[in-house]
Amino acid sequence: MLSTLRRAESENLRGRWACEQAEKEQLEREIAKRQARIRELDIAMRVTRGELAMLAPVNMLPDDVMIDILHVAYLHDFPHCRADDGLYNTHSPIAFSQVCRRWRRLALGMPALWTCIHVTPQQTKGYPEMARLYITRSRNRALSISFICYSEPIELIPAFDVSGEKFAKTVWPRYRASWEVLLAHTNRWKHCALYSTFGFIASELADNLRGRILPRLEYFRHQLWGEETTGYPGIRFFAPNLKQVDLNNIYSGLPETDAFRRLRDLQLSVCGDVSEILIVLQHCAPSLERLSLREMDLYHDDATLVQPSIHLPRLRSVILHDFHEINVSATFISRVFRGATGLEELIVHDTGLNRDYPSHARFSFPQSISTLRYGATEPEWRIIRENLPAPCPELEELEFFSGAEEILHDVLDLYQSSTIVAWPRLRTLILEPYDDMDEDTLLRFIEYRVLVGRPLHTVKLSAETLQRLSSETLAKLSTHPTRLVSHAEDARSPPWDEPWDYGRNIPAYFPWNGSLEWWDQF
Length: 522
What we know:
This protein is α/β, with parallel strands linked by helices.
């Protein structure tokens, strides 16, 4: 019986051993398959890794390539900068510097990324610390300052009206804190653009700069939205390298003459005595290359009329737009034209001239101009029709904002039977969309140019004007070498969330905290 029990136990153990052996062999086979699969995946991963390396992901780009990318992405082109407020969700390099240690090292190693400082309405009360951060990280580089001090744009909320007292108590302290930080580093300013809504702020900003030395400053702009700056102290700082000045909607207080010694670009929209502007032009005459006068409200005394003429040897571009005083406008324009003997580009629009302008202020367009862009109200056409049809031997491009039909008709009457060719080098004629041009006059002028052997190269019309041309006119024009092309309609104002309004050449509005409500602005 004992032997029988031992035999049964032995068979039981052998059975268990056989099962375990079979299970082991099965696992070994599965392990072999898994190992083979692992080897296959290793090979596939090596191939994929090689393909990824060929794609050059950002974390594998060399430093010199990353630096070039940062230059493109974050360097600013003043004054058309992105409205950078230094916050994390904007175009500020701060966001880039917080991605990883390597990117932070690159950002901190590029002081040029931190040289453009914007103080804008959407910033928080802690922005002075952010401004200090930019100043520190930019090291000793020249700074570009954009100080946009306002809260609500009137064009967005016409009924919105905030008193200066309320603005001074609620919003202005936030701006003043940042302004004081910037004032401590005026020796590094290269560009400075100031925008404000209230006259007392404009005056305070200008007064804070009184007597300061700004050795690097090349560009200065001060624009006021809203009320007049009757007490504006003007530019009372010393900037030996100042090349561009733009004073917009500033009433009185033109810069001192020392600020204009090397000026190349002068843009004014002011109310003041003509004698002041003439003195300014006299001091910057040797270096001035571009002069822009817009929305000028001028007056003069009797002594202004006997002042000597101004010689502007380097002046190449003049923009005259919206003059409010007829007699003064004519007198002033005639002086500028007589002095600008080398003028190449002239843009004239709504100068306030009419049939009552004084005889002593008669003028002719400079014969040196190669580009003329003109728009006039109906009373001005007589003056232009007296001056424009002159031969103007250097004129190559002519653009009309209005009055084209009358002026071209006069040219045909004066020169069609003459041996003298009006505008012999004219190649491009541009007619604005809102100029109601008679197609018969246009066709006659193009045919006249062909007849005298001086065909126009290009005539630019709006799409609407091109559609109005009859098939007969188009058929006749097709036989001439002149190209008819369509130019874009008036550029639409950018949406309110764009950083720069190119139509008005000012920073576009950015609401603070993404809200247009007054109580969210401070």
